[in-house]
Design goal:
Helices cover about 40% and strands about 25% of the residues. By secondary structure, the chain is an alpha+beta fold.
């Protein structure tokens, strides 16, 4: 059949050629851009998925940079703390040297005090000068703010607390087990020991710091015995109290690490009803148990009592305790609370029940270390003020002292102050700064280090997923290009034949 007006074969060839040219153009576009999806029509679902993955890649990349920036911030803080640690160690040496009173002139002591004053001023200067882009790091700028502090709380530390903007968090302590000192009661029946003729009462008392043996003659008052033992309180870690009919021997501190041991080397044939060694009632540490623990004669083998740590929960989390101190360390809250109360009586740590400790109102250094911006993706770190007026807090003779009390004219200076108390304050300051450095180091090593490694893996996997969806497969596309080139050339040839086919109808005209 021959037609001239309508060349159907040519129309088919044109359509096929157009399709082949479109496919050829698509192959060329994919090979030139390297992408399988260049516009929505290429793969609508794939485009949506790949754009979501691209957004995740961008967020993960930013989180990695945030973590690296956080590491640099902590590095700068660590540099300042390292210098302060060195200065505190130098302070320790100056105090020990100044205690050698017989070998030092007053001028040398005054010279040592000048050095101490200079060190204290330098610590303050380092604390105020250490900064990152103008933000002070060691002056309390990144410490937490707290209000409504309960009178039952003698001191507290907020190491970390995640808060949304404008939020506050109440810290509630529930005391479930009372903190106890180690303690023994030595019943003598009267206010003075009554011994056999020519006898002496020989007792060895041991505490966590050391041991001493004492000998007392018949008729020695319990108050005298207590004063004698208390004169060695700093050496023994033990104190003594005259109760009128016996002697109370207690550890100075609270907790399971404390103990009191009594060994009677010679009971001197002590007389009196119910004399011997007693423990204190489990529910009332002011009352001796009515059942004797050991006679003085049997105590030749030593009798020991161990203290008890506080038992507590903080915001419903079982706390790690030591003496009167309770601490929790969770992702959302890291706090430490001391319930020792003023004058170290420990009364608050011995009263079972709930305590509204304080309310955290803000503060801290917050770092966004996850791609998703929410409270779970944040890490909050508290860096307290390390100025001399804020570190080294210790109770000295019933008064709270700080490192600043070592300066000239104050109670802990080395010219005429309490050197034992000064050393205690310096040791406390060294521990506080070392603990802060350790906490910052753990943050760098464990939190930042692990986060960066995890984010890098996430970035790799997200990039791989996005690549599978969106990137062109060059092996496939080059093969497709070759196919489309051949088909396009073939379609052009066929179109030429189709266009020449109507000429055959002219032969019918003769």
């Amino acid at each position: 059949m021959s037609r001239i007006n309508t060349n159907v074969s040519s129309l088919i060839a044109q359509r096929v050629l157009t399709n082949n040219n479109n496919n050829l153009g698509l192959s060329l576009e994919r090979l030139s851009t390297g992408l399988r999806i260049n516009r929505g029509k290429d793969d609508p679902a794939g485009l949506i998925a790949s754009e979501n993955l691209r957004a995740e890649k961008s967020a993960i990349g930013a989180a990695i940079k945030n973590a690296e920036r956080a590491d640099q911030v902590v590095n700068i803080a660590e540099g300042g703390l390292t210098e302060i640690s060195g200065l505190l160690n130098e302070l320790q040496g100056l105090i020990t040297a100044s205690a050698n009173t017989a070998g030092l002139s007053s001028e040398e002591k005054e010279a040592n005090q000048l050095k101490i004053d200079s060190i204290l001023q330098t610590i303050d200067r380092v604390a105020s000068a250490t900064s990152f882009q103008g933000s002070k790091l060691l002056n309390g700028n990144y410490g937490y703010a707290a209000t409504d502090v309960s009178g039952a709380v003698s001191s507290f530390k907020i190491n970390g607390a995640k808060l949304n903007q404008g939020d506050t968090r109440n810290v509630e302590v529930l005391v479930t087990q009372s903190a106890q000192r180690a303690g023994l009661f030595l019943s003598t029946a009267t206010n003075a020991i009554d011994l056999g003729a020519g006898s002496t009462f020989v007792i060895e008392i041991t505490g966590t710091k050391g041991s001493r043996e004492f000998s007392f003659a018949s008729g020695t008052a319990l108050s005298t015995i207590a004063d004698t033992v208390n004169s060695f309180k700093d050496v023994l870690g033990v104190s003594a109290t005259d109760s009128g009919t016996g002697l109370r021997i207690d550890s100075v501190e609270f907790g399971e690490d404390e103990f009191v041991s009594v060994k009677i080397s010679d009971d001197g044939s002590i007389a009196g009803a119910n004399v011997g060694i007693y423990q204190y009632a489990a529910t009332d540490t002011n009352t001796a148990n009515t059942t004797i623990l050991s006679t003085f004669t049997a105590a030749a083998n030593k009798v020991t009592d161990i203290g008890q740590d506080l038992g507590a929960t903080i915001n419903g989390i079982v706390a790690t305790t030591n003496g009167t101190i309770a601490r929790i360390n969770t992702d959302f809250l890291d706090v430490e609370v001391d319930l020792s109360s003023t004058a170290g009586t420990g009364a608050n740590a011995q009263t079972l029940g709930a305590i509204d400790a304080f309310t955290i109102t803000g503060g801290g250094a917050s770092f966004q270390l996850a791609a998703q911006v929410d409270i779970a993706g944040k890490v909050s770190l508290g860096i307290d003020n390390v100025a001399v007026r804020n570190i080294g807090q210790a109770e000295i003779e019933g008064e709270v002292k700080f490192l600043s009390d070592l300066s000239s004219g104050k109670g802990l200076d080395v010219v005429d102050g309490d050197l034992t108390g000064a050393q205690k304050v310096v040791e406390k300051a060294i521990r506080e700064v070392s603990q802060l450095r350790g906490r910052l180091g753990a943050f760098q090593q464990n939190t930042i280090g692990a986060t960066v490694r995890s984010l890098n893996i996430g970035l790799e996997n997200t990039t791989a997923a996005e690549s599978i969806i969106r990137d062109a497969d060059f092996a496939f596309e080059t093969a497709d290009l070759t196919r489309n080139q051949i088909l396009s050339a073939s379609a052009q040839q066929i179109l030429g034949l189709a266009n020449s086919q109507p000429q055959a109808a002219l032969q019918l005209l003769g």
